[in-house]
Every structure is written in structure tokens, then in C-alpha cells.
Amino acid sequence: MLSLCDTPGNMVGPEAERTALVRHCCRLYVVGANLTVPIFSVVLRKAYGLGAQGMVGGSFHLPMFSVAWPTGEFGPMNLEGSVKLGFRKELEAISDPVQRKLKFEEMVTEAYERGKALSTATMFEIDDVIDPADTRSWVIAGLRSLPPVKRREGKKRGWVDTW
């Protein structure tokens, strides 16, 4: 399975919860984590949160390869949102609204630097950052590297549907 990842993750909060969006999206995570076919992962742009994890079978370490284009971004969620949530107390402690906004923007800039594909690759979260023109070569090499197909014996492990 070739996963071309460009996902901002899932919306959360009261509006999304009214429609059970997260519960619906959980199907992707459960099915992805139970795939038995080889996965090849190419992050085109955004790879945020559980949405990205679901697209790669649960972890960027699981696919036969996980690469990103230079435009790739990684994070636990939308980076502005992660700063707002993760540093809420620190930001609220700054009484001057102008200074608070400057601090917020500084923290968001740092989050984008950490989330760049090149930064992520240095932490061994993905295998490489590639030129988009090399994508076809990676997929062909991945297909050629697969071991011979073995016929499965017995029942595939069960999983519980999220609904």
C-alpha cells in the first residue's frame, strides 16, 4: 500500500465531538494498525497527529520505508494549536497582550523548525527526505525489496470495530 500522506490530523473539540468525528476517524487507525500488506509512506506536506499515524499503520517505523518531500511537516497536531494547548499557562502568565502574541509567534516558529522534514529525519522518525522527482524510484526499490509472498495459514487476527 502506498500512503501519500498530507493530513492536518483530526479536528477535536465540542463541534467535532457533536458529530462523533474522532470516533469515525478511529476506524482508520484500527484498520491501519491491522494491515498485513507492506506499506510505503511518502509524506508530501502535513503529517500531524493521529491522522498521520493512521495513514502509516500506527507508526512511521512500521512501513517498509517512510520518506518525506522537503515540504513535509510533522507534529502532534496543528502546530499553532499545539502551542496554544501545550503552553497555555505560560502564555496566560504574560499580562501584556503584545508580548504574549510575540511569545506565541516565537514558540510557533520554533515548533515549525522542529517539525520540518529535515529536522524529523535527524531524529530517525523517518528514513529520508527526498526530492519529489525521486518518489517513483523509492516506490520501485521498495517493491523490489519485498520478500516472497507467503500464503497465510489460519485466521487473520481479529480486531474490534470502533462502532
Task: Record keyword descriptors for this entry.
single chain, 163 residues, alpha/beta, 2-enoyl-CoA Hydratase, Chain A, domain 1, five-stranded parallel sheet, 8 helices, 5 strands, 15% strand
Instruction: Find the count of extended strands (DSSP E, 2+ residues).
Output: 5
CATH architecture annotation of the domain at 2-76 and 118-144? Alpha-Beta Complex
Low-confidence stretches: none
CATH superfamily of the domain at 2-76 and 118-144: 2-enoyl-CoA Hydratase, Chain A, domain 1
Q: Main beta sheet: strand number and arrangement?
A: 5 strands, parallel
Helix fraction? Answer: 40-55%
Assign an overall shape: flat
Give the C-alpha Rg.
19 Å
What separation lies between the terminal Cα atoms?
25 Å
* SS field, number of helical segments: 8
Category from helices, strands and their pairing: alpha/beta
Task: Round the mean pLDDT to the nearest integer and report it.
Answer: 89
Topology as H/E string? Answer: EHHEHEEHHHHEH
Instruction: Briefly note the CATH topology name of the domain at 2-76 and 118-144.
Output: 2-enoyl-CoA Hydratase, Chain A, domain 1
Could you tell me the strand content as a percent range? 5-15%
* CATH class descriptor of the domain at 2-76 and 118-144: Alpha Beta
